[in-house]
């Protein structure tokens, strides 16, 4: 312990920051020199549940953010639990955040039913911002020149323009995650010239009102993850071929509405979405979304996915009509020697390099015909992955695969 005590204060504070707040405070009994070091930590995780009552929590926070402190606050995690919900005077929270801003805070994680001071959204040093269960009012001015990562979870937005203003005021924002709440029924716009990764999640089946949807305009996106069972429309503009898509999208249609009539009512919205993502290079699509696309393909032709290099679709082969450009009937249990397709999608000829059949093959003829279709027509295919069901015979399947002619001589077939 003597050797540690001989270290400079800033080094000891970094060591203490690796401990929980309770453990860091307990070190004050080690020596008189350590008595106040926990108040100089560069990183602080301050949670009401770690204190016996609110007054103790507030007292520690006031001492930590006392104006006499001159050190920087690198990271602050501030979580206000149930104890803080009944507090009439929330000014202490505002003063703490303002003090952190003055001390050049870079990482802020805030949880609690609280109206954040808009001074926070003019912080010149903030690099990462995570907010949960807070209320955002409209602001006159928002400037976050260094913010690269933002996570917004169950936020209450005073208007549709609140989120749009916040995002567009972050000139170097690269990573954005949004979890929308049940009460969010407006049209959300995400416009960014710097955004590279965007995840949006709205997976609540019980909603207060129908949602008109989301509009994304972010030309530098490399990764887009959509999990949205509520929005009736979802528009993606200016998407480049380098983007990796992960899609769970219902267009407001649930299982009972997947008949032609239901999909027809969303035909315009589905068309707009498919055109917007048609330049994507990699796609993973959930079962429900793929079924909607299959139904849509019975109404209108699909766009050609000319840049697609990797595809993962987790469903039965008989539902892959949208790739075939021609309807397959209920063939899963029928014996047949060949499936005829009216055309070969451009992506198979020019760009598709990886195909992952994310379902188990059970030895039905139509399944092998679908595998043959990809092997025979995918000119640049590098790898095709298959999974065998319990009733499949591995040796027989491998023998049949070896006999299939391949358009790509370098294609590897991986049987799991």
Query: Which structural class do you get from the secondary structure elements?
Result: alpha/beta
What multimeric state do the chains show? Answer: single chain
Biggest β-sheet description: 14 strands, parallel
The order of strands across the largest sheet is 1-2-3-4-6-8-10-12-14-15-16-17-18-19
Task: Give the distance, in angstroms, between the N- and C-terminal Cα atoms.
Answer: 55 Å
Approximate helicity band: 25-40%
Ranges with pLDDT <50 over ≥5 residues?
317-342
> How many strand units?
19
User: Total helix count?
Assistant: 14
Question: What value does the Rg take, in angstroms?
Answer: 27 Å
Mean pLDDT: 77
Strand content: 15-25%
Report what the structure shows:
- Pfam families: F-box, FBD, LRR_At5g56370.
- InterPro entries: F-box-like_dom_sf, F-box_AtFBL13-like, F-box_dom, FBD, FBL13/AtMIF1-like, LRR_dom_sf, LRR_FXL15/At3g58940/PEG3-like.
- This is F-box domain-containing protein.
- Helix content is 27%, strand content 22%.
- With 416 residues, the protein is of the alpha/beta class.
- The protein has a domain at 330-416.
- Strand 18 (383-388), helix 14 (394-402) and strand 19 (412-415) form a beta-alpha-beta unit.
- Residues 317-342 have low confidence and may be disordered.
Keywords:
14-stranded parallel sheet; about 20% strand; FBL13/AtMIF1-like; FBD; about 425 residues; F-box domain-containing protein; F-box_dom; alpha/beta; 3-stranded parallel sheet
């Amino acid at each position: 312990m003597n050797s540690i005590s001989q270290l400079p204060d800033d080094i000891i504070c970094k060591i203490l920051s690796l401990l929980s707040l309770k453990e860091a405070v307990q070190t004050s009994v080690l020596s008189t020199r350590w008595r106040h070091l926990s108040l100089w930590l560069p990183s602080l995780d301050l949670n009401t549940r770690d204190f016996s009552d609110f007054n103790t929590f507030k007292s520690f926070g006031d001492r930590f953010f006392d104006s006499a402190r001159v050190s920087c606050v690198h990271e602050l995690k501030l979580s206000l639990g149930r104890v803080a919900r009944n507090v009439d005077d929330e000014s202490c929270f505002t003063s703490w955040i303002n003090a952190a801003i003055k001390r050049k805070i870079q990482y802020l994680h805030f949880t609690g039913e609280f109206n954040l001071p808009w001074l926070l959204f003019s912080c010149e040093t903030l690099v990462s911002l995570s907010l949960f269960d807070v209320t955002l009012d409209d602001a006159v001015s928002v400037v976050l020149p260094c913010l690269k990562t933002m996570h917004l979870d169950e936020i209450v937005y005073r208007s549709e323009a609140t989120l749009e203003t916040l995002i567009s005021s972050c000139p170097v924002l690269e990573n954005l995650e949004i979890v929308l709440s049940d009460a969010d029924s407006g049209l959300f716009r995400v416009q960014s010239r710097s955004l590279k990764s965007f995840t949006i999640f709205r997976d609540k089946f019980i909603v207060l009102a129908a949602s008109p949807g989301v509009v994304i305009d972010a030309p530098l996106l490399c990764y887009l993850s959509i999990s949205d069972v509520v929005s009736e429309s979802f528009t993606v503009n200016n998407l480049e071929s380098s983007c990796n898509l992960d899609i769970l999208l219902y267009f407001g249609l649930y299982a009972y509405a997947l008949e032609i009539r239901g999909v027809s009512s969303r035909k315009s919205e589905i068309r707009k979405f498919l055109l917007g993502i048609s330049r994507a290079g990699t796609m993973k699509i959930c079962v429900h979304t793929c079924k909607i696309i299959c139904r849509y393909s019975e109404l209108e032709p699909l766009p050609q996915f000319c840049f697609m290099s990797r595809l993962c679709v987790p469903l039965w082969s008989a539902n892959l009509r949208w790739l075939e450009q021609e309807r397959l009937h209920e063939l899963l249990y029928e014996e047949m020697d060949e499936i005829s397709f009216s055309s070969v999608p451009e992506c198979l000829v020019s760009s598709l390099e990886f195909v992952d059949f994310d379902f188990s093959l059970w030895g039905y003829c139509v399944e092998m015909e679908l595998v043959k279709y990809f092997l025979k027509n995918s000119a640049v295919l590098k790898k095709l992955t298959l999974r065998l069901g319990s009733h499949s015979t591995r040796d027989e399947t491998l023998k049949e695969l070896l006999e299939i002619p391949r358009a790509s001589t370098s294609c590897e077939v991986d049987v799991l």
